[in-house]
Design a protein that fits this description.
Blueprint (H helix, E strand, L loop, with lengths): L18 E2 L2 H9 L3 E8 L2 E11 L3 E7 L3 H7 L4 E13 L7 E11 L2 E2 L5 H12 L3 H4 L5 H6 E7 L2 E7 L17 E4 L18
Length: 204
């Protein structure tokens, strides 16, 4: 799939050996997530909002009320920093200083674009499918009023980098004989048993 040609200004500088720029890795990290944090500068100061998102090829989509202040700001050309992070494990070292986490993360910078009205139906279907595969075919699609009330933004994946840590603790040689447990405590997101909406149960 090739690497993203991220410019020097947005390449990973802290522990660069953990940086990844290939599309396959970036896309896999994005496709495994549901919540991104979108940071931008507002009049009152910096803001970072947690938002549901979906990847659409070499772009990510997120949406909100077209009347909201932040959607008007971002749709008007404000630059953003878009981040997604998965924590895969707690890394427990023999020294407090070397404790860490195993993680997969993506950071993208750019200026969002407003998705045209003619593209909204397809974009909204992508959001619904991200909730659950096949869901767009099961549910009522957004009506004209709902579609009009929603603004969808597209952030092209151009200035983008992934960063990944795996493996165990990196203790100092002189600490290796300390009688302290060291290793990795895995973490993973799981889904529970679905709970039916009581309103959907037919009355007897």
């Amino acid at each position: 799939m090739g690497d993203y040609q991220t410019t020097e200004a947005h390449r990973v500088r802290q522990v660069p050996k953990r940086a990844v720029y290939d599309r396959e890795t970036v896309h896999a990290i994005l496709d495994a997530g549901y919540v991104a944090h979108v940071a931008f500068a507002a009049d009152a100061g910096p803001v970072a909002l947690p938002l549901f998102y979906v990847r659409d090829g070499d772009a990510v989509l997120f949406h909100g009320s077209r009347k909201s202040r932040f959607m008007r700001l971002l749709g008007g050309g404000a630059p953003v920093c878009f981040t997604v992070t998965h924590v895969d494990g707690l890394v427990l070292a023999r020294s407090a200083f070397h404790h860490s986490m195993n993680y997969r993360s993506v950071m993208a910078h750019g200026v969002p674009e407003v998705v045209a009205e003619t593209e909204k139906a397809r974009a909204l279907s992508l959001f619904t499918a991200r909730v659950r595969q096949g869901r767009p075919q099961e549910t009522r699609p957004a009506n004209a009023q709902e579609t009009k009330a929603t603004q969808i933004l597209r952030l092209p994946l151009v200035e983008v980098a992934a960063k990944v840590r795996t493996g165990g603790p990196l203790d100092d040689p002189e600490d290796m004989d300390l009688p302290v447990w060291a290793g990795v405590v895995p973490m993973a997101m799981t889904f529970g048993e679905p709970v039916r909406d009581i309103a959907a149960v037919p009355a007897e």
